[in-house]
Design a protein that fits this description.
By secondary structure, the protein is α/β, with parallel strands linked by helices. It has helices at about 45-50, 90-100, 110-125, 140-150, 170-185, 195-205, 225; strands spanning about 5-15, 15-25, 30-35, 60-65, 65, 75-80, 155-160, 190-195, 205-210, 220. The protein binds adenosine-5'-diphosphate (2 copies). The site of one adenosine-5'-diphosphate has 3 residues, from loops. It holds the Pfam family ABC_tran.
């Protein structure tokens, strides 16, 4: 029962048109699992279903035997377009996410909160951007903020939708390493969508290969030998 369990997941945005069909998966807790496949194969749809952003789906999404949408399961999402609030500073973007994740909980002390926020910004190498507004940042910087925000809520499940796809190769390599370091400090059960086969192999303990149409369940490649 442990880990992320996907039972008979089907998603149709329109009646009779499956965006994602017949998915059955068990992913052990505390792993990074990469999701790869061509455009339109349902990768984002899978993340949206788990994140609770779809009005409906068929099937079950469980974490340690309970619905992923139970309050105990915190889900951190790094969406493709970063999803930052443009009229809030970087610091406040993270503060708001922390508040939503644990309403009234955690440290209500603002100083302590600021310390935690700064810690996650530092871990992403962007402490100096705390007071800036998202739209004054480069794409790569906004991406780092979105990742810091996802880690800052200490998620049970972490979902990333092609977080590095818009970056040049050098920036990407740097961020992959920073991501791995942060993940090791907080090893949430992670689904990482990417277009990049090399990245999928580098980061994923398992690689979930999705195909458009989903006539068959996705193939799962086991990469754990590399991580042993
Ligand atoms: P991927 O992330 O692999 O590119 P998506 O999950 O975005 O795939 O899309 C899977 C299928 O669902 C595609 O056929 C896409 O056109 C369709 N789809 C995605 N989002 C919507 C939506 N909001 N409304 C209708 N169809 C959608
Ligand atoms: P991705 O790159 O993740 O597949 P897309 O660029 O396909 O995302 O889609 C961007 C947005 O458009 C998403 O919010 C998605 O829900 C929506 N979308 C995608 N396909 C369709 C569709 N066929 N009909 C309506 N909305 C769609």
């Amino acid at each position: 029962n442990s880990g992320l369990r996907i039972n008979n997941l089907h998603v149709a945005y329109q009646k009779g048109q499956l965006a994602l069909g017949e998915m059955n998966l068990t992913l052990p807790e505390h792993g990074i699992y990469t999701v790869i496949g061509p455009s339109g194969s349902g990768k984002s749809t899978l993340l949206r279903a788990i994140a609770g952003l779809l009005p409906g789906y068929e099937g079950e999404l469980l974490f340690n035997g309970r619905s992923v949408h139970d309050k105990e399961t915190l889900i951190g999402l790094v969406p493709q377009n970063y999803g930052l609030l443009p009229w809030k500073t970087v610091r406040d973007n993270i503060r708001i996410a922390m508040k939503i994740a644990r309403p009234g909980g955690g440290s209500s002390n603002r100083q302590e909160q600021d310390g935690k926020i700064l810690h996650w910004l530092e871990s992403m190498g962007i402490a100096q951007l705390a007071g800036r507004f998202p739209l004054s940042l480069s794409g790569g910087q906004q991406q780092r903020v979105a990742i810091a925000r996802a880690f800052a809520i200490l998620p049970t499940i972490l979902l990333l939708d092609e977080p590095f796809s818009a970056l040049d190769a050098l920036t990407r390599e740097g961020l992959q390493q920073i991501f791995i370091d942060n993940w090791q400090a907080h090893p949430a059960t992670t689904l990482f969508v990417t277009h990049d086969v090399e990245e999928a192999i580098l980061l994923g303990q398992k690689i979930i290969v999705m195909l458009p149409g989903q006539q068959e369940p996705p193939e799962i490649l086991d990469n754990s030998a590399v991580f042993a």
